[in-house]
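Sample log: AbrB/MazE/SpoVT family DNA-binding domain-containing protein.
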Amino acid sequence: MPTATTTLSSKGQIVIPKEIREALHWEAGTQLTLVSSASGVTLKAIPKKTGRRFADLIGSLKHDGPPLSTEALCQPVEYGADEDMVKGQAR
C-alpha cells in the first residue's frame, strides 16, 4: 500500500493524494468515517449500498420438493433428537 504526506489547510481540509485514492478505489463522493485515537486519525470508506432491496431476493433460494405451509415453517425445531434432522438431512 502506498504512503504519502499531505498538509492540513487553514480551513481544516486535506487532499488525499491520487495514488492513495486510486489504490483504495476512492472516487469523488466516497463517504469516509474518521476514527480518532491517541496516535491520530484513521479514515475508513463507508461501504456503498448495493441498491438491492429485500424484495429483490425473492426466488433466489431454490427448494426441491413440495411447498411447505406457513404452519410447517413456524413449528419449533427439536435439536438433538436426531443428528441427521439437525443437519437437515432427514432419512
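Observation: The first strand starts at residue 32 and ends at 37.
Observation: The helical segments are 18-24, 70-74, 83-86.
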